[in-house]
Every structure is written in C-alpha cells, then in structure tokens.
Amino acid sequence: MDVFSELRRHAGGNHPQKVKLNVVLAAITDVIHDRRGPGQREDHPISNTEYFAALMTALESNDSSSHAQEIMQLLTMVLPEVHDAVLRTKFDAVAHAMIRIMQSNEEDISLLRSSLVALGMVIQAQEPSASVWNHPTTLKYFHVLLALAADPRPKIRKAAQSSIVKILEVHADAHCDTLSTHIASFAENILASAVAKDQTKVLQLVGFLGSVLPLLPGKVVTSLTEALLKLLQTNQKTLALVTLEAFDAVVVSPSSRLSAECLTSLLTTVLSLDSNIHDQQHAILLIQITCRALARLEPLQSTRELLPRVVVAMCTYFESQHTQVHRKCAELLNVALQACLNLGPHPSVQRVLFSLEGLLTLRYQHAWSSIFSLLTSIVGFYGENAHPAFDSIFSTTVDLYAAMDSMPQAHDDMRKWFTRFLTAATTSVGAEVMLSVVPLQNDHGIVEERAWLIPVIRDAAKAGPGRLEYFSTAILSLAKTCEAVARADSTTALESKRMQARTMQLWSLFPSFCTHPTDIASHFKKIAKTLANAMSDKRYPELQLLVCQGLQALLKAAAAAAKSEDDDPSDVDQAALAKFAARFLPLLIAIVEGLDADTESDRLQTLLDTITNYATLADPEFVQNVFKQLMQTLLQTTTAAKKSADPKAPAAVAMLAQAHLHMSIALALVGIIDVSQVALLYRVVKPYMLDDTDPVMQKRSYSVLVTICDTHPAFAAEHLTDMIESLSESLLTCSVPAKKMRLRCLHQIVRAIEAAEHPDTAFVPTLVGEIMLCTKEANAKAREAAFEVLLAMAKLLDAQGNLMDFIQMVLGGLAARTPHMRSASVLCLSRLVFEFGRTEVTIQQAMPDLLRTVLMLLHEKAREVIKSVIGFLKLGIAILPKEALVEFLPSIVNGLLQWIGESKARFRAKTRTIMMKLCRKFGYEYVASLVPEADRKLITHIRKTKEREDREKEQKRESRGQKSFEEFMQDSDDDDSDHEGGAATTKSSKGNDAVAQQRPAKKIKTANGASNYIKENAEEDIVDFLDNAAFKNIVPSRKAKRVESDDEFEIAKDGRMIIPGIPDDDDDDDAMGDSEDEDAVRRDVQKKLANMGLDKKRKRDAAPAGPTAGNEYRAKKASGDVKKQGKVDPYAYIPLDPKLMARRNKHSAVSKFSKTGRVGKQRK
C-alpha cells in the first residue's frame, strides 16, 4: 500500500505546503528509480523501506538544509509502515540523525516537532525488553524525550509527551517496567524543584502524569500518587483541579495498576478535602474519583467502614445548584453501591440506608429527580433482597406522596418520579411484600391517601409472580369491605359512588395477578364461584371484562406451563381450569346473548375470545352439545323473526339481534368443533348467504365460511364444488357490507382449489366481473381483498397455462356500457401487467395489442376511465422497449394533450409525468415534433425544469466536494496549537470610519427563539451589558438608517415648501439610463399581468370612487355640515377593509375612525 497516495491526490492543488511535499516526493521517487538496477521495471511499486532509505540519505546530505522540513514530514509519514526489524537495525544512525537535526534547528518549531515525532517512532519500534532498554544508548535517546516533555513550547512538549505515552503503551502490553523508574525520577525531580517556583511547569507535569500513570506498575503509581496528593493540600485551585483530573484518568482506566493502599490513601485524602458543591467541574471530579475508587477497592479489601463515609459525602452533593452534579452523583453512587453494599444487619449498612432515606427530606427536594432515579436503579439491582432493607424508604415515599399537596414547589413531575420508583420497587420485591409494608387498609377500611397505589400495584404485578390465594383473601376482602360501605344506609351518595369506584379499582388487580400465577391448581377452585358471581352482578357490568381478561391470562399461563413441561402432557393447571368449563361457558354465552352488539362491541369481542380460549380446555362432548343447542336456538330465532308480519317490529328486531349474537358465538367455536358439527354449521349458513334482507347475518355467514376453510381444510376440499356453487348463486344477492368477507371467501376457495389441484375453473368467468367491480369499492380493505382474489385467480390459471385467457376475460370489461366497469377493467389489467409483465413472455408479446386497445379509451369523457388509462400508460412505457413503443407515441401524445389543459380533471401532474418519461426516453426534439405548435411550450418547460434540476444537483455535489477538500487542506499544525496562557489579540483598522459606522447589528436569540439585534455605533462607547441602560441598544428588528441629505428645500415667504423639478441635463442621462430601463421592464410586466388577470393590485385595495368621509356635506362658508335638497341627512362611513383587523394596523384603523368622526362638528 502506498502511504503517499492521499498526498499525491493534491499534487496540483493550491496548498503551498502540499505542493512542496509533492515536489520533494517526486524527486525522492526519481532517485529510487535511478538507483534500481536495469533489470527492475520502473512501474514496480516502491516499498516503504526504499522510501525510508532514500529519505534518510537525503536527510544526511549537505544539500537538504533547504528541504529538511519536507523530508522530515515525509519521513514521519513512512516510518509507521517500516518494519520494526529495519528500524531496530538502523536505530543508532537514525536516532543520531534526528538528534543532530534537533540540535541544529532549535528555533524552527515545525522542523523540531517533526524530528521529535520521528525519534519517538524509532524508539517505539525497539524491542520492549530489559536488555534493550537498560542499554545506555537507548536510555540516552529516551531521556531526550523526557527532557522535551517539560519544554515550555506547547507543540514540542505535546509531541514529546505523546511519543512517551505511545512507548509506554507498547511496554505495558509486553509487561516491561524498565522505564517506570525513569518516569518516576523525572516527575519527582520536577515536583521537588518547581512546586514553589514554577507552578506552570507543575501543571504541565501533572497533566502529563494523567496519561502516564495508567501505564506504570503499582509501586511507581503509589509513590507518584503520594506526591500528587500533597498538591491537593495547596491553596492553588487550578493546580488542585488538574491534579483531580489526573487522578480521575487513573481511576477510570481499567488498565491502571492501583493497590489497595494507594486507593485507600486516595479516598481518605479526597474525603477530607473541603469541596465546593456549587463548583460544577470540581464537584463532578470529586464524585467520579470517590465512587470509582471505592468500586475498585472493593475486590481488593473490604470497604464496609469506608462506605458510610462515602455515601454521606456523596449525599451532600445533592444540595448543589447544578442539575448535572445531581445526575453524575446519582449515576456514580449507584455504581459504588452496587459494587460495595451487601445488604444485611451490619451497622454500616444501616448507616448507608439511613443516609439514603435522608435524601427524601425537603432539603433535597430540588434534586429528587436524580435521587429517585438512583433509588430505582438500586432497588432494581437488589430485587427481592431489597426487602426488608428498603422498607423504611418505601414507607417514607408513600407518606411524601400523601403530603405532596402541602409541599412547597410541588409539581406534576414529582408524582411521576414517585410513581415510577414505587412501580419499580413493587416489581422487585413483589406486590404482596409492598402491600405488607404500605397496606391499603386500616381498621376503618381503605386508606384514601394510599389509593394511588392501586394502579402502581396493577402495573407492577404483571411483571412478577402472583398468587390467587392472596388476591382472594387480601384484595377481595378489601373490595367486599368497600362494597359494604357503599351499600350502607348511613353512607352518602357521593361516598357510595367513591366506594364503588374503589371496589372496581381493586377488582382491576385481578388480571395482573393472573399474568404469572403460581397456584392455579390449588386455589382456582376456591375463587371460581366468586368469579362467576362477579360476572353475574348487574350492579358492576365492568366486572365481566375484568374477569374475562383474568381468565384469558390464566388460560395463557396454563398453556405456557404445559408447553414447558414435556414430561407431563396433562398439565395440572389446565386440568384445574377445565373442571369449571361447564360452569363458565354457559355463563359466558348467556352474557353474550344479553349484550347489545351495536353499543357494546368491545365487550362482545372480549367475551367471544374468552369463549374460544376456554372451549379448548372443555370436554369435547360438552362443547358439541353446547354447539347443537346453539344451532337449534339460532334456527328457531331466525324462523320466528321471518314469520313476523312486520320485520321492523321491536320483537322481530330483537330476535334478529339474538340471531346475530348466536352466529358470532358459533364463529368463535368453529375452530374447536368436529367435522360433523362443521357440516351442520355449513348447512345452516348456506341459506343466509343468499338472503340480502339481513346484511349483518350475511356478512357473518361469509365470515363463518372463511373460518371453516381456514381451520378445516379437509372439509373445504371435500365440499369444494358445493361451496363454489353456493358462492356463484349468491353473486347477485351480496350486500355491500358483506363484500369484503365474500372476497375473502373467494380467496380461500381459490387457495383450496390450488392446494387440492382441482381441475374445474369454470367458475372464474362467472365471478371475474364481480371482482373487477370490487376493485373500485369505497372500502379500502374490500379493494385490497379484490386485488388479492384477482391475483390468486391469475396465478391459478397461470399454473394451468391459461393466463392469457384470464386477461382476455378482463379485457372483456372494456366493452361494458358503464364507465365504472371500463375503468375497473383497465385498473385490473394494469395490476396483472404489473405482477406478470416482467416475467411472462406471453404478456410481453401481447403488450402492444393491449396498449393499442387501451389507447382507444383516451378519447372518452369519463374521468375515472382516463385516470385508469394514464396508470396503464405508465406501465406500458416502463415495460415496452423503445422500438416497440415508438409506433404508439403519436397516439399517446395526442391523447394526453387533450387532458393536460383541463383544469378540473386534475390530470396535469400525471400527464406531465408521462410526458417527462417520454422526453427522457425519446429525446425532447423528437417528442416536440409530435406536439402541436400551441403545446410545444410544455416540452420547453419540461426541458428547462430538467436542466435546472441537473444544475442544482451538480452544484450540491460540487459544494459537498469542495467542503471536504477544504477541510482536508487545512494545515495540521493548526490542530496542534496550544491555548495555554494564550491571549487573543484584535487589530483595529484606522481610516475606515465609514465602514465602522455601517457595521451591521449583531443578532442574538431570545429564550423563545425570537431574533433581537444589538445596535452598534463606532462613534459611541462600547455596549456594556452589565449596565442597566444596555437594554436601550437591543431592538426587535434591524432597520436601515435614513440618509439625510444636506440639501434643504427652499421655503417661500408664505411658508410653502418649494420642491424643484429634476434637471434635464445630459450629464444625468447615463446615470438615469439603468433606472429608466428597469421602469420600462416593470411597466411591461405589470401590463402583461393585468391582461392575464394576475395583477397584484386588488380592487379592494384601491381607493373608493365615491365620497367616503362625508366631505360632500361640509359647509363651504361655515363650520359643520349642511343639508342638501334631495339627499339624505349628512353621514360619513368607512369602507370595510379586512386589513384593518390585523393587530399591526390597529393604529391606522383608529386614526381613520377618529378622523371620520371629526369631519363635521355636532350641531347643538
């Protein structure tokens, strides 16, 4: 790989340094080719070793002084790719050359830095072993790097420190600690000599040690840590901050080798510091060091004694005014507690928990968001073991929630924090444990202040195991108590309503306790009677849904347990539930029969799902008997309804509603009954499919047929012919609501024919017209089902080789009398071509004839037909090759152009899209030759639009490329600049007063996003934002200053202003030429817009023609108004103008009304 490939890309660029590098690189490359023997080709790639040798030779020559910088940069680019064996062999020579260049160019920062980087790379390549690094020569060069690591020049110092860190990383991977003593001596010497004299040097050293300490052995780290800890005792804030950053880097690094003694000393010192909790940076550093050091100390020795002290110290940081400090403290304290806190009866653990509970006082209210996040994480980590250790925290939290209304600065988010924490805690310890810690009831009944816990328990109980026994003994007993209070005579109406609501809330816990039950086999029989009575309770109809949801959860849990236990196929939980099927199924059916399907559809579906799930566990014989009785009741009900003299009579309507519910129950049991009952059901529903007087029953009959085909495919295959005949007979009697289910029936029948390889497809011509019309239905699901049936039939006939016959059937719809049918035919044809046109050769061959036939419809007046034809044309243009499409081009263009100008047809965009496709495929000139002269502007517009889009894309592409190029061309030296102690300087330009006076105002953003501007004036003082009068310089908008002319108008003796005309000098002709041309163009444009009816000036904006303010009644020789003969009394009016309603025109509106009112004085 060529290391200079990126550099060569910029050989012809504008960057002078890159150009110089490419010139030197080309010279080096020529030298390498000249040195090669005659047998080697010049196009053979040059190896990195050859580049290295040539660059070193050029560097050592006497003529390289003028290009030493470029050679060194090229050398730093190639050194990382040179093999280590080469660098180890040439180490002494290369290092000596680097030292010589560094000594002779001490003032050239760039060259010195490049030489230093190259020296570091060569040293880094040496073998990391004690034998090599104990050699005096190697140590001599390494000490050069150490000396430069304390250099006052930022670039040199950073380059040396970076090289040392890379060398130590190599040694740490090889477990070579030879250099650690040298690093320690270097640091100790600086600390000993510069602490009192040169604080800057100490700051630079401490920052360097933050990168080095994680790579040093434990003994050296301990000694250097003790030296750095002394710096924390000084009063130098900056020095202490940099030292803390170094400790943070050591503690956070997983590779740092910290001993228990070192960590203990660090923790003791940090905890003894006087920290300013309101100093965000300092506080965050102390939090990170303390918590991470404690977490790292735990595996080495016990932290039981230190942990309470650390927790107390961390709790003080929650008093800080910075939210970031709260979040960081919660995050890292969570890490420390999870690593060190072992819950138990030890006093240190109790002290920690007491400190955590203390965070729930009002003193820390402003930090409760982070505190509850911390508590949530801790409780979730310990799970069930959080009880009983955190019981007091749970109780305190509940009490705080009850007293929240009386708290200062309480808000809704606090309720979310409390609820989120209690939900996580209940999930961890379990609902039973939580209710034992904070019970919902007392001696007088339910505790209203804790009623908010019921939704918390409901959500949390779904995640953990639950016991039906606990629900029946604890929850239901409390619900019965609430119900008894609600029914008591002494209870007020309001209290009774409240107690009934509490009863329903307690019952809402039942589905949650049924999600993961552990005692179905032992305790479901004890609660089954209560559940049945609750479903029959007329006072609480909502209990039916809750009990059904719980039963479904129990059935699901029992089925999951049966699947997981392979050794016991007859699961005891399912057996316990199956014993009560004979009681619950009739009860559920009776409840369904009493529902109103129109107003209680949600409850109906839940009940039907429960019937379906419970029937799977019931005895099959019992289910068959129930189904037989259901069918008998259905037939009796429908027969009685049909015999009614008045079908709209209430009794007849009620019987039909009952029949509909019975059919819904039968639909729920279709997948469970046996084949004999399926045959009975099929015989029952066949007459309903032919009866269009009851659309609901017809729709459900089709749904039953779909379910039969889906769940009993053998029965469907056996009765396939009869089903096809039934569907064909019911074609003319299908109601609109039943179309979707009928189409799904047809789809199931086609799938059954395909699966059974039924040869008879004679029903297809009978039903294809219906399917085509259904593709135009208003119901989207019906349209989708129609297209699915259409494609299924096409695939069925395609498998038999009769696809073109099916397409001919679809084409037959083009001869229909109604435009609706013709449009549906074209739409279906488009879908078939879209699905099969790219794969079926027969369709591709027939495509010209199909297109020729469809093009004839372009001259129709029905818009729905034209819309379908345009869609087909898009497919034709995409599928047909250019040679086959050219003969249809005149017909397509002429047919489309008659619709493109029709504004009401809304086909402009679609036809323009097709014209664009044709222009791109055949060229603008050819398509324009087919277009009449009056419509060729459209082709010109399309061409110009496409060219404009191409130009914009090209400009965007170029701008992106230019941006990346400029970023690449930035000098790398700018990235290495050091800002330590640097001061920004500003240059003031003199003699530019005019420019200074016209400086634009600076734009600022307000809190709500609005833009304000700061007025600046070079002649005035600088705006002082600390001054209370500074707000006068902030304006809501930028306004241009008016230029005041020095010329003043002449004033006549009577006070009139004399405005002279514009002189007609020849000298002004050139100056006025441009403006006259612009005025002429503007007048022409306005005239054309007026002719087109697009003039921007609206009639309502023009001044009214007649008198508006009562001027015609003003007296000429007196004050006030006069009456005129033959006219109405004097009046004044203002024309209604919507503009005056705007807020910005309020002043103008008021002035108009005021002027109108003062036209004439009121007569006395």
Unreliable runs, pLDDT <50, ≥5 residues?
A: 962-1011, 1037-1048, 1061-1077, 1094-1108, 1159-1164
Percent strand equals under 5%
Distance between the termini: 107 Å
Helix content: 55-70%
The averaged pLDDT comes out at 81
Strand tally is: 7
Strand-pairing-aware structural class: mainly alpha
For the biggest β-sheet, the strand order reads: 3-4-5
Biggest β-sheet strands, sense, barrel: 3 strands, antiparallel
Number of helices: 53
Describe the overall structure.
The structure is a single chain. Helix content is 63%, strand content 2%. Helix 3 packs antiparallel against helix 4. The model is unreliable at 962-1011, 1037-1048, 1061-1077, 1094-1108 and 1159-1164 (pLDDT under 50).
Structure, briefly:
The protein is mostly helical.
Descriptive key words:
single chain; 1164 residues; mainly alpha; three-stranded antiparallel beta sheet; two-stranded antiparallel ribbon; disordered C terminus; HEAT_RRP12_N; nucleus; ARM-type_fold
What's the helix and strand layout?
Elements: H1 5-8, H2 16-35, H3 48-60, H4 68-78, H5 84-89, H6 91-104, H7 109-124, H8 130-133, H9 136-148, H10 154-173, H11 180-194, H12 199-212, H13 218-231, H14 237-252, H15 260-272, H16 280-297, H17 306-316, H18 323-340, H19 347-358, H20 368-382, H21 391-402, H22 412-429, H23 431-437, E1 441-442, E2 445-446, H24 453-461, H25 468-487, H26 493-507, H27 510-513, H28 520-535, H29 542-564, H30 572-578, H31 581-593, H32 601-615, H33 620-643, H34 650-669, H35 675-689, H36 695-711, H37 713-718, H38 720-729, H39 739-756, H40 764-774, H41 780-799, H42 803-811, H43 819-836, H44 841-855, H45 863-879, H46 882-885, H47 889-900, H48 908-922, H49 924-930, H50 936-968, H51 993-997, E3 1002-1005, E4 1011-1014, E5 1034-1035, E6 1050-1051, E7 1057-1058, H52 1069-1091, H53 1146-1157
Antiparallel strand pairs: 1-2, 3-4, 4-5, 6-7
Helix pairs in contact: 2-3, 2-4, 3-4, 4-7, 6-7, 7-9, 7-10, 9-10, 11-12, 11-13, 12-14, 13-14, 13-15, 14-16, 15-16, 16-17, 16-18, 17-18, 17-19, 18-20, 20-22, 21-22, 22-23, 22-24, 25-26, 28-29, 28-30, 29-30, 29-32, 31-32, 32-34, 33-34, 33-35, 34-36, 35-36, 36-39, 38-39, 39-41, 40-41, 41-42, ...
